[in-house]
Write a structure and sequence with these properties.
The protein is mostly helical and 230 residues long. Helices cover 72% and strands 0% of the residues.
Length: 230
């Protein structure tokens, strides 16, 4: 169950973070005026909806679960074998959310590049460049695997003939690729945080410790007459 719930929560949070990132760049005053509606409420929905949906589908939906502990994901819950709930889950909870996230990021990049070209806002471009790099890196990393998996699953769903190769790739390869993406996302975020790079580690520690950073000292010998040794 945790794979379905956590996967749904991460997908919805990533998609909404793309929308919020666009609002933060172009409508910062507006989003701060409506922080409860545009920030806190969507986060609560992104957490509660997958949790309630998959609890209902796995524990309440009228079907019998037969788990096979020798196969990937133990064969999955029984609702994935029924056409209506599985189609709803695939199209609404996966494909639609993924399309929203990808479309929002593409629109964000196009808007930033268009504004830079049209208005020559060099200062604003420098201010938003790191955020844009972070958007592109995380979006590409997160969506490549997930987009392929959703595309293959849609082909399997609507294809008139069985697709054993796509099924094997989807459930035996891409499933684990999504887990790898989640582990790599924090490291990709460092691309937009050069102050945390190794060359700036000392400055970061000074700032963190309030300037009271202990450093090694060099002992200098002084002659009896007060002069420096030769």
């Amino acid at each position: 169950m945790q794979d379905f719930v956590l996967g749904g929560i991460i997908l919805m949070l990533m998609s909404y973070s793309s929308i919020e990132r666009y609002l933060f760049i172009f409508h910062r005053t507006f989003i701060f005026r409506h922080l409860i509606i545009l920030h806190y409420s969507p986060i609560i929905i992104c957490i509660m909806y997958p949790l309630l949906f998959y609890i209902g589908m796995i524990y309440i939906y009228q079907c019998t679960n037969y788990f096979d502990y020798t196969v990937n994901l133990c064969g999955g819950p029984c609702y994935v074998s029924d056409i209506l709930p599985s189609t709803f889950d695939l199209i609404i909870n996966l494909a639609l959310i993924e399309i929203i996230g990808v479309s929002t990021n593409i629109f964000l990049v196009c808007r930033v590049l268009h504004n830079r070209y049209q208005m020559k806002q060099q200062n604003k471009w420098k201010k938003n460049r790191r955020l844009l790099i972070q958007v592109l890196s995380i979006t590409l990393l997160h969506n490549i695997m997930l987009f392929l998996m959703v595309t293959f699953m849609l082909i399997e769903l609507f294809s008139p003939t069985p697709q054993p190769v796509l099924v094997d790739i989807t459930y035996n390869e891409l499933q684990y690729g999504v887990y790898l993406v989640h582990l790599l996302c924090p490291f990709v975020s460092l691309v937009a945080l050069p102050k945390l790079w190794p060359g700036s580690t000392l400055r970061f520690l000074r700032r963190l410790l309030g300037g009271n950073l202990v450093q090694p000292t060099t002992n200098i010998q002084v002659n009896a007459d007060g002069g420096m040794p030769h």
